[in-house]
From TrEMBL:
It comes from Sylvia atricapilla. It is a multi-pass membrane protein. This is KCMB4 protein. GO terms for cellular component: voltage-gated potassium channel complex. It comes from the Eukaryota. Its main location: membrane. The lineage of its organism: Eukaryota, Metazoa, Chordata, Craniata, Vertebrata.
């Protein structure tokens, strides 16, 4: 009785391992499908529409216009402050016409007129100081040194970005973890099947010895 009960518990454990393996396989496939349709495909299309170039700073200036930003000072505390508009004009290796530099695609969409959006503080003076610091950085630290910039023809083709929103590491992780989940599921299923096969063979050999 105890012997048959132990065999039943071992079979139940195998069934749980098989279900876990198939669950991980399904989760990996669904993750790949969902990320591919909703995020990875648009990101690759965005990267395919753009390219890289060498940029050199032509001018750094602050406009008289100020823009509004929203700051948060707690769960129920929000307000509006303002920051000056900083423009960094560059020359790219792909065109002789000046282009406006932006931090990334997200900043370009948020404020296409400016090159930098500071972290929004409640005090307008603090926002101005952050913008002035960034202005000095581009004038004194970067100066005429060339650096890599990126462009995207689907957005504003005359503007360039300092970095991409969807870089190689993000795309790698987007693809890697669903694949790892899928492979772990396959490994669990294969190991469970092998363990069951070895157990059956061992039981058959034991019966032959007793005969």
């Amino acid at each position: 009785m105890a012997r048959s009960r132990a065999a039943y518990e071992y079979t139940e454990a195998e069934d749980k391992s098989m279900r876990l393996g198939f669950l991980l396989i399904a989760a990996g496939l669904l993750s790949l499908l969902g990320l591919g349709c909703c995020w990875l495909r648009p990101a690759l299309q965005e990267r395919g529409a753009g390219g890289s170039a060498n940029c050199t700073v032509l001018a750094v200036r602050q406009l008289g216009e100020r823009f509004a930003c929203t700051f948060s000072c707690g769960a129920a505390c929000r307000g509006t402050a303002r920051y000056p508009c900083l423009q960094v004009l560059v020359r790219t290796s792909r065109s002789s016409a000046p282009a406006l530099l932006h931090e990334d695609e997200r900043q370009l969409r948020t404020n296409p007129k400016c090159s930098y959006i500071p972290p929004c503080a409640r005090d307008d003076q603090e926002n101005s100081e952050n913008v002035t610091y960034k202005q000095k950085y581009w004038k004194e630290k970067v100066g005429s040194q060339p650096f890599t910039c990126y462009f995207n023809q689907h957005l504003r083709p005359d503007d360039v970005m300092l970095k991409r929103t969807h870089d190689e590491s993000v795309l790698l992780h987007c693809f890697l973890w669903p694949v790892v989940t899928f492979l772990v599921g396959v490994l669990i299923v294969v190991l469970t099947i092998c363990a069951r096969s070895l157990a059956v063979r061992a039981e058959a050999i034991k019966k032959k010895k007793h005969l």
